[in-house]
């Protein structure tokens, strides 16, 4: 076994990402480049000024700047470039598989056709699979601050591209927008063959996690931090091995936790919860996958064995085939043994 630093260990470890918003990977440099290409104005004078604006007190403050940035995305090439930039970065971090969200309503409400959005993203994902060896699944998210009718319209717009989309999710402003608001939309999405996931228990209460499970019938919870306030819920999540896609640096930046030493990831692992580490919106929250692993590793004094368990969980919780999961988990085991 090699004696390497925790940074080196994390960097070389194979891993999957299951909670990533492609619009949230929009780095300031690329945002300015695409804005210039499209003749769009950004309400910031420089990359540095924009980066300084990436300090948030809550989820809504982040969402305001997130949607403003997305406004410059117009063409298929823009969505390709955005996605390719993410894949290029995570390829250097030994990411083997990604299951990423896209928010069609953020773009269709601005007059950008659904087809333009998904074609640009998917073309980059296909190139990433072929050239970088990163497999993927694509998840279409509904914006929960909009109404049920808007979600139904988006589901209808997605149907011509159904074979390109693996599942549907639910994101945006959580408080006051419970999962039950979209019960009928999710029922229809499930009926036509989509897998279903939902953000729950980030800023919203643990009851939203119950709703996501019992009303939307999701097979994975995005975030889920607040589950720890309800031991009956913890028992259920552990028994059913419902994955939770945790996002440590996002939680820190949006004040879900005040310090990474308060992050529940290790306590959740001790309760036999199937937890994973992800980057959420890395351009805005200060780090991609390795930075998220490193943040909790240092703050919570995690061992290499615990970090490898998280990496294995990322494959267990993925939508890869059982055979693919097994192959990837064996790679993590071999990596741990060698390091």
How do the strands and helices of this protein lay out in sequence?
Layout: H1 6-12, E1 15-21, H2 28-38, H3 47-52, H4 59-70, H5 76-91, E2 95-102, H6 104-108, H7 114-132, E3 135-143, H8 148-158, E4 167-171, H9 183-191, E5 195-196, E6 198-200, H10 206-214, E7 221-223, H11 231-240, E8 244-246, H12 248-253, H13 265-270, E9 275-277, H14 282-285, H15 289-299, H16 304-316, H17 322-338
Parallel strand pairs: 1-2, 2-3, 3-4, 4-5, 6-7, 7-8, 8-9
Describe this protein's structure.
The protein is of the alpha/beta class and 339 residues long. The protein has helices spanning 6-12, 28-38, 47-52, 59-70, 76-91, 104-108, 114-132, 148-158, 183-191, 206-214, 231-240, 248-253, 265-270, 282-285, 289-299, 304-316, 322-338, and strands at 15-21, 95-102, 135-143, 167-171, 195-196, 198-200, 221-223, 244-246, 275-277. The strands form two sheets. It has a five-stranded parallel beta sheet, with helices on both faces. It has a four-stranded parallel beta sheet with strand order 6-7-8-9. Strand 4 (167-171), helix 9 (183-191) and strand 5 (195-196) form a beta-alpha-beta unit. Helix 16 packs antiparallel against helix 17.
